[in-house]
Design a protein that fits this description.
about 450 residues, Beta-Lactamase, 4 domains, six-stranded mixed sheet, about 50% helix, elongated
Length: about 450
Amino acid sequence: MHYWRAEILRLLLVLAVTALIGWLAGNIPAALLVGVTAYLTINYLQLWRLRNWLKGNPSAIQTEPPESFGLWGEVFDGIYKLGRQEQKTRDYLESIIRKAQESSSALEIAVIMIDREGSLVWWNLAGTRLLGFEYPRDQGHPVTNLVRDPRFSQYFHDADYSESLKLPAPGDNSRTLEFEIALFGERERLMIVRDVTRLHRMELMREDFVGNVSHELGTPITVIKGYVENIMDNVRDLDEKWRKPLRQMLQQSTRMENIVRDLLMLTALETKEVKRQQKPFNIRQLIQEIQQDTEQVYQSRSHEFDFSCDPELEIVGDRAELYSALTNLAQNAAKYTPDRGAIRIEADYAGEGEVFEIRVIDNGIGVEPQHIPRLTERFYRVDVSRSSETGGTGLGLAIVKHILMRHDADLHISSESGNGSTFSCRFPAERIRGPGGPRPPAQAPFPDQPPQINVH
């Protein structure tokens, strides 16, 4: 501020001196005109020096500013200081970018930046190694022109990046790459590419192993079971001492057959990618079908079946998979509920409407709390003898868990020994179509239900 004061005083001094000279010369206006012209000329020369300095030195830091005084000296020094500060900030940011690029070059995964138009901006060395990108040849080119695979093009343009994409490496079908994309900024993309060849081969080996073992087991089991069934059809011709062993052979061969089937299904769920085009279907119709099928299988037990669901509600998912999961829960309830017991299936919104629940409720024998966290483990059984009697494989709830995970859902279990169980499948409300909003939970048909325990 003092520079402005000094400049104003300087102008007043020029005017005073020129006015005095003009008074002595007898022509004050002419003298003032000469003084103002001289003052403006000096300022114009300073402006011209500033222009030449900035024109030859855009960053305003490469050379010292021209010597000046007063207000113009402050202008030159201020611009010089701002330029130095800007250069320091630029150097700092460039060093961060350089370090980030150097560190990313040490990664085994490819990191690729793509602009909003879908063109390559930058990539690390792994991008060159895995995808064959070259500087500066490929910079600015659309990534879909460089990764020529219709599946990648659809994945890139669909902009649904909730799941990764696995593809053969360009030019090398023996390698498998996994693509992940994240949005940032103004529709720009960051793409991560990993070489998952070893993991992919291990998955294939495991899938082949389970498939081969299941096939090798399935054939002899089917033969044994067939012979046992034929013999059992003529059980009247057998001695009493053979009847019990044959019944046990039939029971165990049936159980082994179920284990093989469940192992194949579990392996398929773990290795098969989630279908991107899941479709909406009516929930009430699905529940009604499950109830009827379960009631038919266990009709000799005389259970009381009931269900509750809005007829207009639909869920987006794989109908066959959800049918399998919910049938598993319903049939488990039927297995472990005494004759003439009650089984109810409910479907409605829970909490504040942010989740949708499908619950299978029974008043059966229940499960002690210490067993609940392990119920979804493979082959885990609360009571081995009880599972053998009911034909359980120990894989049913593991299958349910994997199916729910493929639908962004999880399983919550509430149970107490002797007081029944509630198995709740919780889906995000975004998967539901039809009447929405918060709803009060339906009243449980069996009182004194214990608190829920989450099983993930």
